[in-house]
Each structure stands twice: as structure tokens, then as C-alpha cells.
Write a structure and sequence with these properties.
It is a single chain. With 326 residues, the protein is of the alpha/beta class. 37% of the residues lie in helices and 17% in strands. The chain has eight helices and eight strands, in the order αααβββαβαββαβαβα. The protein has a six-stranded mixed sheet, with helices on both faces. The protein has a two-stranded parallel ribbon with strand order 6-7. The structure holds N-[2-(1H-imidazol-4-yl)ethyl]acetamide and zinc ion. Zinc ion is lined by residues 120, 141, 174, 296.
């Protein structure tokens, strides 16, 4: 009896599939999802790293902003460089630039994709004390999310989308107060670029169906758990992305379990603009920080970027975006 039930349970879905396969070509809605290239995404990460650390108020930072803007334009986006003087926790005025690229501007339904592009001025989690005043190269922390989004943008310009997509590269995310700093409101010393944009969106009244933040999406065998604020504000978006990943065979990267609660750019997009937004962020339960062993160290370099991880995130998000109905 149990065998029979088992057989029935396995055969029934197969029969259902078969029926779908018998549909004529015209009945089946075919969506062509352009093939995300991990090699290309990797090259976009490397290009950023080659400028040097993208620390605000440095020539490398100015040059990289220019590069990001030019690349988005080259891919056919409408680009806005949103400039602002932002005050850091220590009083430093940061010459910040949020780089915004829009595709399919006529579409009312919009998806927001974002990552921070600046790198941290101090590797304050480096195990070697003398490295802690050096800047973070930020191949993973900053570079990886932007690299994946640039590769997606390359396709957005060439393959018709059903929805509008806005890509924002936020500045001044990683200028947050070090743990040694004893001051008030250190929590809000992070994510200055996204806080500014959420209070001053590039289009007054801007909204989107949902937002997806990519943060540290390039480490070998990275694991992405359901970040707690993402689940609170946008649980259905988390489920959409994680199940898409699962069905593409990337369930070893996207773990369908509760992760940490992270202060990141998505918090302000959720709280200030009310756009349900999630954070795809590496979570490694086996490290102290939870962010992997090279986080905020001088070893956050290209040697620790893996194309397989960029591939898993990029292909998953291409499916999510191209499957979105208007
Ligand atoms: C805090 O450490 C408070 N948030 C982590 C956000 C972050 C830093 N992402 C990359 N670098
Ligand atoms: Zn960081």
C-alpha cells in the first residue's frame, strides 16, 4: 500500500508535466533569460579593485564613480549621479556620489536593485594590529555586489524587460564608526548614502514593487541566509528569491533558514521609503563577525572572489527580474 501511494505521488506530478509539455509552442509563454556571465561579472569586480580602495575623498573614489556612471550609460541606462556632502561619525565631510541607472523608464512597475560601491577606510577587523589603519580593498565588500549588478545591467540594455529596473550604487555605506569609537548613534553612522537617497529620492515620490540589496556576494562557498529585517519587511520577496535559487540548483548558497539581523542599506529603504527590500548578504555562522573571515581585513581581495558564487547570485536574480510580470 505504501509503495502504491509512493508510486502515485511520484507519477501524478510527472503526468501533469507531460500535459504541459504537450501544449503547442504558441500556448507556452517563453521568456528568454539572457545568460549571465560570471567571467564578465568578475571582470567588473576586478576593474573596481584596480582603482585602489574606493575610500570617500580619495582620487580612486572619484575615478570609480566616473567609471560606474560611464558603464551604466554604455549599457543604455539613464544615469543620475546624486552628489551630497555627508557628515561622517567623526565630523569628516564626505564628498559622496550615489550612482543611479534606470532601464525602461516608461514602465510604472519598477524593481530596485542596489549595492554599495565605497570601500571601508580602515581594516579594523584585521587580525594584525598594524593593518587596522589601512583601507579595505573591498573586492567582496562593495566590489562583488556592484560587479554582479553591472553584468545584469549589460543585459538589461540588450534584452527587453517586462518591468522597469533601477540600479543604485550607494556611496558611504562603509564609513561607520569603528567599535572602539564611543559616541552616540553609531548605528546610523553606516549607510550614509542610502540614508541620504531615501530622504531625497532622485525622483520625488519614487517607489518600487520591491528592492534587493547585494552585499558581499563573491566569497567561495558563500552562504546567504534569510536576513531578519528582510524577512520582517519583505518576507515574500525573500521567499521568491530563495525558492528561485533553490529551483536553479543553488540551494547550497541560498540557505532557507533564519540568519542575522543586519544594519545595511536596505533598512533605510524599508523604513524611510517603505519599499519592501531584502539583503542578500553572506552569513557565516562559523565566524565571529558572521560575515566571513576576510570581512574588514586587508585580505578582502580578488584572490578571495569566486566566480561560482557570482554566478549563483547573478543567474538567480536574472530569473527573478525577467520573470516579473508588469
Ligand atoms: C554593521 O556592521 C553595522 N553592518 C554591516 C554592514 C556592512 C558593512 N556591509 C558591508 N560592510
Ligand atoms: Zn564593510
Amino acid at each position: 500500500m505504501r509503495n502504491f501511494l509512493f508510486l502515485l505521488l511520484t507519477i501524478l506530478p510527472l503526468m501533469a508535466c507531460n500535459k504541459a509539455a504537450q501544449k503547442t509552442q504558441s500556448e507556452v509563454k517563453t521568456i528568454n533569460i539572457p545568460s549571465f556571465s560570471a567571467d564578465s561579472a568578475y571582470a567588473f569586480v576586478k576593474k573596481q579593485v584596480d582603482f585602489g580602495p574606493r575610500v570617500p575623498n580619495t582620487p580612486a573614489h572619484v575615478a570609480c564613480a566616473q567609471y560606474l556612471s560611464a558603464e551604466l550609460k554604455r549599457f543604455g541606462a539613464e544615469v543620475i549621479e546624486q552628489k551630497a556632502d555627508l557628515t561622517a561619525f567623526d565630523g569628516t565631510i564626505l564628498k559622496a556620489v550615489n550612482v543611479i541607472g534606470s532601464f525602461n523608464l516608461a514602465a510604472d512597475t519598477r524593481i530596485l536593485l542596489f549595492a554599495h560601491w565605497d570601500s571601508r577606510p580602515w581594516a579594523d577587523h584585521d587580525p594584525i594590529p598594524e593593518n587596522r589603519k589601512k583601507p579595505v580593498v573591498g573586492a567582496n565588500d562593495g566590489g562583488s555586489g556592484v560587479g554582479v549588478l553591472l553584468e545584469m545591467a549589460r543585459h538589461f540594455g540588450q534584452n527587453q524587460l517586462n518591468v522597469g529596473v533601477d540600479i543604485i550604487f550607494f556611496d558611504a555605506e562603509d564609513y561607520g564608526a569603528p567599535e572602539s569609537f564611543r559616541g552616540k548613534d553609531t548605528e546610523n553612522s553606516w549607510c550614509l548614502g542610502s540614508q541620504y537617497w531615501a530622504k531625497n529620492p532622485h525622483i520625488p515620490g519614487y517607489t518600487a514593487r520591491y528592492g534587493i540589496l547585494l552585499d558581499m556576494v563573491g566569497a567561495p562557498q558563500a552562504t546567504f541566509y534569510r536576513e531578519q529585517a528582510s524577512d520582517y519587511y519583505a518576507g515574500s520577496v525573500v521567499t521568491k528569491v530563495w525558492s528561485q535559487a533553490q529551483s536553479l540548483g543553488f540551494g547550497n548558497y541560498f540557505i532557507n533558514q533564519k540568519g542575522g539581523a543586519i544594519t545595511d542599506d536596505h533598512i533605510y529603504v524599508n523604513q524611510i521609503l517603505g519599499i519592501p527590500s531584502i539583503d542578500i548578504i553572506q552569513y557565516d555562522p562559523n565566524t565571529n563577525s558572521g560575515f566571513g573571515k576576510y570581512w574588514h581585513t586587508i585580505n578582502d581581495t580578488m584572490e578571495n572572489i569566486d566566480k561560482e558564487t557570482l554566478n549563483a547570485v547573478g543567474i538567480t536574480l536574472m530569473h527573478v527580474v525577467y520573470n516579473e510580470a508588469p
